[in-house]
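Figure 6 in text form: structure in, sequence out.
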């Protein structure tokens, strides 16, 4: 516990704003109690983020409890109600919905930190599960104590502690918390590790969680070192969607695969899930082959074309087909098969949905491709930002930028980069709007 308090002491600064993921279980309640100790000293603004999954009889009771607790301690409390689930992988869907909610609160309150109550036992379980099923070097690190998210950081201060230490403290201090009975069910993989493997490890070494934390931190350091090597190398060999393979043929195979992974990340951005080990192996072979000319086909209409010592990544859509300008009425099918449609209602507020007040813009709407000096007043940001810079930050492949749809009004004011960013003209659900637009991907997976 001392290490956790020391960590928080060194981290927190006066007037910090902290969103705390709070389930009312012992871990999150312990974290909340500890932060309350710093609240007055640092003038902290604490936002309690609670998700009611409506899966257990006591869910309503827990939500009522955390609201009363927050009111009593002068904390802001935000609750999300999840009434139903659609996917087969419940845990994955539930996690995605939770974190989407947490990130929205971070933006709403301009928080410096999102804190979660993952502890040392969670870290051991995560590392062991990933070792068993396979992962990347970064994945084998398990749960990071700090993850930078640009404007804020995700912090996990309890990795120094075990579940037993947390519950013992709460019980000794007679501090209330709730217990989720599903945590004892052996049908969940994590619970089987918790019930069968952790007791053995703790019997061998009661502080084994600290050894796993050291392992995790060392893996992080190794991965950061490798990433720096990759970034240095890739700046030398990859420019304008062209890879100079002169310096790569004799590169270490491990480093080469890492470079290939980064190239795919640049090319595909948010669609990186289209890439698998087969594609990495094919590009690896293309770099190593002695053939002067060779082509491989990659997902999303991209070809890798080798010409002597250069590999070019080419979009199969001809450049003549990339430029377009449409007047929007109710529906537009874009050249790549994606659609922008007008809908009557929607519950979503992500970047695939846009809410407009027609009195603030000039109709009709226009959907077009980019111009050299395009800028947009991005929602929640001061001033304007170049569209080219947004594409760069979002890692949109250069081969895809010219054809990317841009929604403007008739005065050529940019309103939306579908799926990426919304402008200041996007209206909150609580404000006045009379136009709702939706961006549908051809694959129908990312935004349905």
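Output sequence:
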């Amino acid at each position: 516990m001392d290490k956790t308090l020391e960590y928080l002491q060194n981290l927190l600064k006066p007037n910090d704003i902290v969103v705390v993921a709070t389930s009312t279980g012992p871990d999150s309640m312990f974290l909340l109690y500890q932060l309350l100790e710093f609240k007055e000293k640092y003038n902290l603004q604490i936002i309690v983020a609670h998700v009611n999954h409506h899966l257990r009889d006591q869910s309503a009771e827990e939500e009522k409890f955390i609201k009363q607790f927050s009111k009593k301690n002068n904390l802001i409390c935000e609750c999300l109600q999840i009434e139903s689930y659609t996917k087969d992988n419940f845990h994955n869907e539930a996690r995605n919905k939770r974190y989407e909610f947490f990130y929205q609160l971070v933006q709403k309150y301009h928080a410096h930190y999102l804190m979660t109550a993952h502890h040392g036992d969670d870290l051991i379980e995560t590392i062991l599960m990933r070792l068993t099923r396979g992962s990347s070097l970064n994945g084998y690190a398990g749960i990071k104590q700090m993850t930078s998210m640009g404007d804020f950081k995700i912090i996990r201060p309890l990795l120094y502690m075990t579940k037993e230490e947390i519950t013992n403290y709460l019980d000794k201090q007679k501090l209330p918390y709730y217990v989720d009975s599903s945590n004892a069910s052996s049908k969940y993989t994590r619970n089987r590790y918790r019930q069968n493997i952790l007791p053995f490890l703790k019997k061998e070494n009661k502080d084994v969680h600290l050894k796993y934390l050291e392992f995790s931190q060392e893996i992080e350091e190794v991965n950061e070192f490798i990433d720096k090597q990759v970034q240095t190398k890739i700046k030398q060999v990859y420019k304008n969607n062209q890879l100079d393979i002169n310096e790569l043929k004799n590169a270490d195979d491990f480093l080469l695969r890492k470079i290939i992974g980064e190239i795919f990340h640049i090319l595909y951005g948010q669609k990186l899930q289209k890439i698998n080990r087969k594609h990495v192996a094919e590009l690896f072979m293309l770099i190593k082959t002695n053939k002067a000319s060779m082509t491989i086909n990659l997902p999303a209409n991209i070809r890798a074309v080798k010409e002597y010592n250069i590999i070019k990544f080419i979009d199969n859509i001809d450049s003549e087909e990339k430029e377009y300008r449409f007047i929007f009425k109710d529906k537009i099918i874009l050249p790549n098969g994606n659609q922008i449609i007008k809908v009557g209602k929607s519950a979503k507020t992500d970047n695939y949905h846009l809410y407009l007040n027609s009195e603030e813009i000039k109709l009709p709407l226009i959907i077009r491709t980019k111009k050299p000096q395009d800028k947009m007043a991005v929602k929640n940001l001061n001033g304007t930002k170049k569209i080219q810079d947004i594409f760069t930050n979002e890692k949109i492949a250069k081969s895809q930028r010219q054809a990317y749809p841009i929604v403007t009004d008739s005065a050529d004011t940019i309103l939306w980069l579908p799926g990426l960013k919304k402008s200041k003209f996007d209206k909150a659900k609580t404000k006045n709007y009379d136009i709702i637009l939706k961006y549908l991907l051809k694959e129908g997976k990312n935004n349905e």
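Caption detail: The chain has three domains: 2-216, 240-315, 322-440.
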